[in-house]
Amino acid sequence: MPGRFSVLCVVLAAVVAGLFFVPVFGVAALLAPLLVPAAVLFGVAQLCARTEVLAAWRPLLLLVAGLLAVVETVPFPTTAAGLPTGETFSALASGITESWRLTLQSTWPARPSPDQLLFVPLLAWPAGVLGIELLLRSRKPLVALIPSFAVVVVSQLYVALSGLAAVAAGLGYAAVVGALFALTRPGEEKPARRARRTASAFSSGVPVVVLGLAAAVAAGLLLPGPGRAYSLKQDQPAPVSGRVAGPLDDIANRLEHPDVPMFSVRGDARPDRWPLVVLDTFDGVNWTPGSRYRRLGAELPQSPLVTVPSRERTATIRLGDLGGPWLPSQTWPAAVSGADPLVEESQGSLWLPRPTGEYRLSWWEPQVPVADLSAAAIDQRAPGGLGMIGEPPAEAEAMARAAVGGLRPSFQAALTLERFFREGYHTAASTGLPSGNGWPQLRKFLFETRRGTSEQFAAAYVALARIVGIPARLVVGFRSPAVPDAGGGYTVRNGDVLAWPEVAVAGAGWVPLDPTGTTRLGGAGGPAGLSEVTAQARAQLPPATQLHDAPVAPVKGPGGAGDAGNGDRSFPVLWVLAGPAALFLAGLVGVPVAKFVRSRRRRRRTGAGAVLGAWLEVRDRLRDHSVPWTAGMTARDLAAAAHGIGTPSIVDGIRELGVTVDQVLWSGNAPGAQAGHQAWAAVLTVQRGLAGRGLRLRLRAALDPRTLLTGVQARSSTMRCAPTSSAPGSMPRSRTIAERARR
Amino acid sequence: MRLTPRGVAVLVVSVVLVATAEWAGYPLFRVLGAIGLGALPAAVAVTARGMRVAVTRVVYPDRVERGRPALAKLRVRNLAGRPQAGFAAWDHAGGSTRTVQVRALAEGAEATYQYELPTAARGLMAVGPLTLQRADPFGLARNRHPAGETGTLWVHPRKYPARALIGGFPRHHHDGATTDDSLRGSLDLRDVREYQPGDEVRHLHWKATARTGRMMVRDYADPEQPRFTLLLDTRGDALSPALFEEAVDLAASLLAASATAGHHSRLVTSGGVDLATSGGLLAVRQLLDELCQVRQDSGAEQALVPGVLSAVRHQGGCLTVVTSGAGGLGTLGGLAGLRARYSSFFVLALGSGGVPPVIPGARVLSADSAANAVRRWNEVV
Predict the structure, then answer these.
(1) B176 at the A interface (CB within 8 A)?
(2) For the CA atoms of A655, A659, A660, A661, what is the dihedral angle to 10 degrees?
(3) A152 in contact with B at a CB cutoff of 8 Å?
(4) B 177-216 near A (Cβ less than 8 A)
(5) Among candidate residues B263, B258, B317, the one with its CA nearest the CA of residue B288
(6) On the CB side of B338, how many CA atoms lie within 13 Å of its CA?
(7) Residue B348's beta-bridge partner residues?
(8) Which of A153, A157, A181, A221 to mutate to test the interface with B (most CBs of B within 10 A)?
(9) Of A260-269, B29-38, B324-333, where does the model show the most confidence?
(10) Does the interface predicted TM-score (ipTM) exceed 0.90?
């Protein structure tokens, strides 16, 4: 019958498997929902094992108690003082049918709300119950691990752990499995036998554990990672419902009603603009925003596009007449509290069809020095940056090339293009605002009227930038008003609506530009972040005549930075082999050196200590030569044991030494000056005898580290030696040489 | 040195995991698979070291009555030139397996282990060989090889104290067959022969001595030699296996009592076994050894009375038939013909279900077990 520790291992396996959802929900959110039901399951299993009446009801009891424990941890707010209500059951039902899907639709780490978290304990709970039942019925631990391993598989289909996390997780699960294996070895049917298993039986498991550990580290950290794993998440975007008017088309309308308050902002940062939505697809007629929305989880990590350090900023936004579905956001949102919007991860747009009240937004603000930004390259990898632009008019390309002054795509080229718009075009004034953003309208704007709203400026800029190879996208939003409110914040109105282009800069991410020149830097009284740095770079832009390309960086060969990105590292064979090789060399040199040092120290002692040292030296040398030695042996016993391992001089030497030891330690007289010399002369005799044993045996003896390892222990504790020649009873036999020497 | 079924399972799962990881790109599965694939060679290496031990075995006693204790004693001696870690050993005794946990042995040390042998079933039991096993703590790999000699334990049938029946066998007599029962303890003159040193002087036949001029003595013999013949029914369909064991116990009880009393005892089975002994302790052992190995026959439609008993020349003494009570007159009918050749004739019917069969001229004792049958035997005899 598998014992209670085996049951505990099976339950723990389910818990560990559940903990593999940590990247989805975080550790803190998962601990209670996994550990409490596990503890309850274990307790019930124990109760059933001890109470015969309950044993037949064990599966049912496990199921009910485990479910109750799940109810008391995750959907606790739906219970009435801990008692499940109808609401609890509907929460459980949606937990089974919906929560897994809601979690897949969210960004990760997801919010640990019950409607999303519930499916994890609802997976671990049946895995634990099934595992216990399979263990107790089939008595096969491998079979009992199948349910928990199924949870592991599901967790990996959610998020595939990699690197150090994978190694730690794998070792955690393997530790539980190993403990279960050790507790249920085949042929160990008697529990009484198990108690007698000594530490030595387990020491044989050390190589297994060490090799398993090494294999885990090698597979997880040293070998190049396998390809990209499939995740269920990638096929589960959140459904976005409702038809919305094109945000660009609203601009003219908004500008005609400039005083309607849209939202007000209060917070530690004053960004110069508030993006609503990003449009990166242009088919020549329409600009369309991204459509892969997800639920916003607990926090969005920093984008891999931004490699410069970022600061987290927060602001509280109170919504006015802004109807939605897009919420004022920032390029790199980090978290939203007070609302539950969807987010377009690659664009930062927040989607909430019926927004109400206020919410708190925090975002990442890249910190780029001006010099870096001026010299920055553009980021060709930015998603959507070099999308299609429909069929541009024939003269547009020539115009674009002329506008950037023949520069290669770079941030400087982007600024030059911006200057082209700022200097050659002007914004439309209050009445008769032009509208439209397709190629016909843009063509009219670019070549004929040279007058437009920010809509035409931004659309034309993005189109021309993409023609010359600068990744760009169009953003619609609001600029910050010039005058703050009386209360400290500021209110954004319809008239502040703005469309602007953003270009992708290597390291800094998307950098907003302003071809209309109408944003108000620091107008609202706070630092403006990236826009301010852009303004400084703009100011430093040399005149058009002095523009020239930055020198081309030398092309990096294979193995350079270009290869580092895709994780294709070569296996560090040398480093892996260096460790064992160093250990081997250290043993080869270190052991004989340590023995030599030990011998010198023994020889340097005086009086009885010298004799004692000689005795220890002889003992250790003979032990090196595989002479059996036990703690109670006298010199005479040792001589008998050493008989036949080599020349007779060994035995003679030991006998001589025995006489000296007896005289010094047991005669009661103070040792003479000659005693030490005699003892070490005997050692020399023994050494000469051992020298005749042949090179192979001597080499093995010299490299044997065992006497070094146990020398300390033997010297300090139980080395007892009775007199070799005194009459029986004249001295207590159990007095050690060391003890005697101290007197 | 090979993997246990668990080790094979771990190997297969690990290979599948690693293959899945490489194909689908899940690093965790690769780590788990690598742990398995790393642990397995280590487990094999840990268990690979041979076990150089000498195992001698003593089974004591070597013959034991069913249900009585018997011990197997193992002496394990370390032959390797170094201390050896402990290991588990399996000893096979009959159909069962006993685990012996051998503790760590110092260099040249010897340890003794003993355990009780299962003696629940009658028969010849081979004890050993000892299977040494070294397994890693996780049970992934093991190394096992047989060591030591095998012993044999004779598990005899159970004996209940029974009385020996004295049934005489009329020997050849000069005056022809005796017509009446001779007095118990009488002597029958068999021959007059020349005196040999050691002969009883009181038996000197003076007349013949005088006539021949040589010392002649009378050679006396018992007129009726006690003789006990037991026919055990071994037909496959006569007795159930459990009841057959009872029948064997009963046969053992009666034969042992008779042979211990020094009577000529003879075991005959319907399967053809015929063991005639002349009594004494050696005979007891012979009979019990034979009974230890007797099995029910498999052939159908066999006669209860074997050929050796049907032959006319076998006669005299007491004939006891241990058989099933359920047979009826049809199968037991052949017994009636034997009555004339024996001085007393018993039929012990086991498991007759309360209605003893009627056999002309035979005393039928029916019982449900050997113990009851012996009790009734002791009452009757």
Answers:
(1) no
(2) 90
(3) yes
(4) none
(5) B258
(6) 31
(7) B322, B365
(8) A181
(9) B29-38
(10) no
